[in-house]
Amino acid sequence: MRDVKNAKTDKRLSEKKLASVSAVSTDSDSNDRISLKTQKDLKNQYKKAEKIKHHYFRTFYYSFAITFIILGAAAIFYFMYQQDKNVFGFADKYYDEAVISLEEKEYSKTVQSLTECLEFDPDHDDARLLLAEVYEELARYDEAVTVLSEGIELSPRNEAFYSKKIQLLTQTNKISDAMEFINSISSSYIIVKLSELRPSTVVMTPDPGTYDSAVNVELISSNGATVYYTVDGSAPTTQSLVYNPENPIRIEKGTVTIRSFAMNDNGMISDEYSATFRIYSENSAYIFLDDKVEQMVRTSINKPTGAIYYRDLQSVKRLSNEEKGDVKYTGDISTLADLVEMVNLNEVVIANEPNIQDFSYLQQLKSMTSLNVSGCLIDDVKAKQIFSILWINNLKMDDNMISDIENVKNMSVLKEFSVANNTVKDISALGNMTVLRSLNVSNNLISDISVLSGLTSLKSLNLSNNLINDISPLSYLTMLTELDIGTNDIKQLNAISRLPNVELLTVSNNPIQYLSPISDYTALKSLKVDGTAVTTLDALSSLSNIETLDCSRTLITDFSALSQMNLKNLILSQAGLTDLSIIATANSVQVLDLSLNTVTDITPLANMTNVKILNVSNNPITNFSMLQLCSTLESITCAGVPLTLSDETAFASLGISLIK
User: Fold this and answer.
1) Which helix (H) or strand (E) segment is 383 a member of?
2) Contact of 402 with 373, CB cutoff 8 Å
3) d(CA 272, CA 659)
4) Whether residue 191 is found in the same domain as residue 236
5) For residue 397, what pLDDT is reported?
6) Band of the pLDDT at 490, cuts 50, 70, 90?
7) Residue 390 within a domain
8) Which residues contact 472 (CB under 8 A, 6 or more apart)?
9) Does 98 lie in the same domain as 191?
C-alpha cells in the first residue's frame, strides 16, 4: 500500500514539475513574441522618422532653391533697372501719356504723368525738360528751375538743362542769379557748349579812363543782341536802359560807371562788362547827388559853405555820419554815388542808413581800409556786394538782416570783423581767415564754433548771446586778451583754463558753478560772472590784477577774496545783499553798485574810503548821514530811496551830486 501511495505521490510531483516546466516554456515563448513585436515597432518608427527627415530635407532644399532663384531673378532685374531704369517701359508709358495730355492742354495731367515718369526713371532727361517747359507755361518758374537743377546734378553733361535754366532766370529778370549760375559752372565741356549759344561780351569805345572833356560811349555786342546798361553803378537787368546804337551814351562831367550785358532772342546772356569814365578837372565845382553826403563832406573838410571843387574831394580821407557835439546831419543817405569821386577815402562810416539800396559804389574805393555799415537793413544780397571789397582790413556790419556770410572767406586781409545782431548760424567761412585779430559774432544763432580753433591770431572774441554749449575749440586761442562767452549754455570753463593772456573775461548768464579753471588768469583785469550759479570767489584770491568785478544776480555769500584784489569797480546789483560788512574789506573800490538789494544799514561803507561813485538805488536805506564822512564821494545814485531834505542839503554842501 505504501508503495502504491508513494507511486501516486511521485506521479503527482512529476506532473507538477511538468506543469511548471510547461508554464516556464510558455512564458518564455510569450516574451520572445513580445520582443519580436517591439523590434518590429522600433523598425517601423525608425523608417517613419527617416521618411519625415527626408521630407523636411526635401522641403528645405526646394524652398532654398526657389528662394535662391527668386532672389537671383530679383538681383538680375535690379541690375537691369539700375543700368536702364526704363527697361520695363514704365517711364516711357507715363511720358507718352504726358505728351498726349500736353497736346490736349491738360496741364495738370501732364505734370502728374511726368512726375510719375521721373519717379520710375529720374534720369529720363526728355521728361525732365518737358516738365520744366510745362512749369514755364504755367508760370511756375521756381519749380521749373528746381527741376532743371536736379537734372544738372543727375546729368551734368546735358547742356540743355544749363541753357534752359539760364533762359528761365533771364525771363524772370533774375540776371544776377543767371550770371552767378554761369560763373559757378566748372565743366569745360558745358562752358564751351554754352559759349556757342551766348552773345559776346559788350565792348565799349572809347576805352574807360579819365578825360578832360565830354565823351560819347558806344556799346557793341553780337548782331541781334539787345544791350542793357546802367550809368548809376547799379547792376543792370532787363528793366534797365536799352542801348540804341544811334544814340551813344554821353558823359559830360563827373565819374560815371557803365555796367552792361547783352541778351539774345533765346534768352542767353553775356558776361557783365563794367567800365568807369571820369570827366575831371580839379578846378571844376562838384555837384553832389546826395544831400547828406554833401553835409558829411563839408564837415570832413571844414567847409560849411561855398562851392566844393573836385580838388576838395581828393582831400577827404575819412567820411562819417556820426553826430558828435555840435555836428548834426539832416535826412538819410539814398545813394553812395558821390563817394566814387573821393579816391583817397580810407575810412567810411555810414551806420544806420536804411535807405541805401546799392552798396556796389564802395567797390570802387580802392584806398578804403575800414568800413562801418551797421544798421543799414543789409540782407544777404546786399552783403555780397560788400564782401566783394577784398582789400579792407576792418568791416563792421552789426544790426542788419544777414544770415549768410559765406563770401567773407574771400576777404583774406580782413583783420577785424563784426557781424553782431544778425541771424548767422554757420561761421565755417571764417576757417581760413587766419589774419583775423578781432571777431564779434554776438547775438546770432551760432551753436558750432569748431572752426575757430584755427584762428590762433585772434586777440578779441565776442560769442555772447548765441546757442553755444561746447567751447573746447577756444583752448587753442592762446593769444586772446578779450573773451566774451556770456549768455550761452556753457556749464563749465575747463576748456579755457590755459589762456594766460586774457585780460577781459565775460561768462555772464551761463549755468557755471565754479571759477577754479580760471584761477591762473594772472593777467585778468575785468571779470563778469553776473547771472551765473557761482557761489564762491575763492578761486580768484590770487588774481591781484582784477580791477573790475561784476557779481550781480549771483548767490555769493563769501566775499573775503575781495581783500586780495586791487578792485576799482565792483558791481553787486541784485545780489541778495542785506549786510555790507561782508564787502567792507574791499577798500580799494572806487565805483560801487549796490542797487536792487535789501540793504538797510550802509555804515560799513565808512571803511571803503576810496569810493567815488555809489549806486544804492532801490534799497530800504533810512540813514545816509555816514556818507557825509566819505571825503572821496563824488556821486550817489539813489533812485527808489527816500532821501530827506536835510540829506540832500548836506550832500549838496559837500559837492556830492545826487542822481534820483
Assistant:
1) helix 380-387
2) no
3) 62
4) no
5) 98
6) very high
7) no
8) 495
9) yes
* Confidence check: pLDDT of 547 > 50: yes
Cβ-contact 166, 181 below 8 angstroms:
yes
Lowest mean pLDDT: which of 14-28, 29-43, 311-325?
Answer: 14-28
Which residue segment(s) compose the domain that 267 sits in?
Answer: 203-279
| 176 and 151 fall within a common domain | yes
Whether 452 and 433 have beta carbons less than 8 Å apart is answered as no
CA distance 84 to 80: 6
Amino acid at position 93, single letter: K
Both 233 and 156 in a single domain? Answer: no
Which triple of cell numbers denotes residue 635?
556821486
Determine the Cα angle at 352 with ends 351 and 354, to 5°: 125
CATH assignment of the domain containing 264: 2.60.40
Dump pLDDT digits (tens) for 346-376. Answer: 999 999 999 999 999 999 899 999 999 999 9
| 110/182 same-domain check | yes
> What would the mean pLDDT of 68-81 be, rounded to a whole number?
58
H/E stretch holding 570 reads: strand 569-571
Q: Which residues of 144-172 are buried (b: 16+ CB within 10 A; e: fewer)?
A: bbebbeebbeebeebbbbbbbbbbbbbeb
What is the predicted pLDDT for the residue at 57? 65
Could you tell me if 155 and 207 lie in one domain? no
Phi, psi for 573 (deg, rounded to 5) = -70, 135
Q: Is 226 helix (H, G, I), strand (E, B) or coil?
A: strand
Q: Is residue 99 part of a domain?
A: yes
* The domain boundary residue, chosen from 131, 163, 195: 195
Using the 8-state DSSP alphabet, how is residue 438 labeled?
A: E
Planar angle of CA 303, 304, 306, nearest 5 degrees: 75
pLDDT (0 to 100) of residue 222: 83
Band (515; pLDDT cuts 50, 70, 90): very high
At residue 149 the predicted structure's pLDDT band, cuts being 50, 70 and 90, is: very high
Across 384-412, average pLDDT: 96
Q: How far is residue 631's CA from residue 357's CA, in Å, rounded to a whole number? A: 57
Question: Could you identify the residue written with the cell 506521479?
Answer: 11
User: Is residue 351 domain-resident?
Assistant: no
Query: What separation in angstroms does the CA of 125 have from each of 78, 128, 161, 165, 236?
Result: 21, 5, 9, 14, 33
Any idea which residue has 535789501 for its cell?
598
Amino acid type, 565: M
The CATH number of residue 180's host domain is 1.25.40.10
Considering the domain architecture, whether residues 94 and 190 belong to the same structural domain is answered as yes
Give helix 188-195 / helix 159-171 axis angle, nearest 10°.
Answer: 60
Please check whether residue 12 lies inside any domain of the structure.
no
List of residues 6+ apart from 489 with CB closer than 8 A? 467, 468, 469, 510, 511
Q: What is the pLDDT of residues 198-210, one digit of tens each?
A: 999 999 999 998 8
Residue with cell 546789483: 573
* 3-state class (DSSP) for residue 330: coil
Do 132 and 221 sit in the same domain of this protein?
A: no
- pLDDT surpassing 70 at residue 294: yes
Domain C-terminal end among 195, 227, 251: 195
The number of distinct structural domains making up the chain is: 2
- What amino acid is encoded at 421 in this protein? N
Q: Is the whole-model pTM more than 0.90?
A: no
> What number of other Cβ atoms are within 10 A of residue 404's Cβ?
18
Continuous segment of H or E residues that includes residue 274: strand 273-279
- Please give the single-letter amino acid code of residue 509: N
- Mean pLDDT, the chain, rounded, equals 88
| pLDDT at site 8 | 47
DSSP state letters, 84-148: -TTTTSHHHHHHHHHHHHHHTT-HHHHHHHHHHHHHH-TT-HHHHHHHHHHHHHTT-HHHHHHHH
3-state secondary structure of 6: helix
